[in-house]
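Per your request, structure below.
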């Protein structure tokens, strides 16, 4: 398998953590690319019409894209215990992954607005509203933090990657302030080899 990636992407990190936890990271060739909305990469776009990373090319030539699809696939072929719960717990975990992914989407859009869009066209109100999505999400997670487990699931992996991305890109905004429970959860969950091995 071949993974088109950039280590700064939280979606890539989620995929790589899943591969590590499922015991198949050594089966994946990493191909580093740099992509923005205005500078695509032909090596990715040729097999992935969306042109985004992560993109996973399977040994039979088929390409999978969108981190959730790739994580689902890797979980299905991994050798360790499944990272996707069953029953009602599955939907709780998928919901957590959706919140985490939405935080990452908002954070990346702010990044593009501030560093890719020409300065004269930047829209502060739009960026501020993207940040409000993140604030509402982490406030909701803090309120529900007593229900967060330390189980190694796709949802928890996604959340750890989202919070790490906030540290990576927006450390000055101090997401931990007033969110002690979520901060403790993150500190504990991120003390894993798969987290350390996939740091940007």
């Amino acid at each position: 398998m071949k993974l088109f990636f950039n280590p700064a992407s939280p979606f890539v990190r989620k995929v790589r953590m899943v591969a590590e936890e499922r015991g198949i990271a050594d089966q994946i060739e990493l191909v580093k690319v740099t992509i923005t909305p205005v500078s695509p990469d032909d090596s990715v776009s040729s097999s992935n019409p969306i042109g985004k990373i992560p993109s996973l090319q399977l040994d039979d030539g088929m390409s999978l894209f969108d981190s959730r699809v790739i994580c689902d696939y890797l979980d299905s072929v991994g050798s360790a215990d499944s990272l996707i719960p069953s029953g009602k717990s599955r939907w709780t975990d998928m919901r957590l992954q959706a919140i985490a992914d939405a935080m990452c989407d908002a954070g990346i859009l702010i990044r593009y607005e501030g560093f890719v869009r020409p300065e004269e066209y930047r829209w502060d109100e739009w960026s501020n509203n993207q940040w409000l999505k993140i604030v509402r999400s982490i406030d909701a997670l803090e309120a529900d933090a007593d229900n967060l487990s330390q189980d190694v699931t796709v949802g928890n992996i996604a959340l750890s990657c989202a919070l790490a991305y906030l540290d990576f890109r927006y450390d000055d905004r101090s997401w931990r302030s007033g969110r002690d429970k979520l901060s403790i959860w993150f500190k504990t969950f991120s003390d894993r080899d798969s987290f350390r091995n996939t740091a940007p």
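The chain has a mean pLDDT of 95.

Regards,
D.
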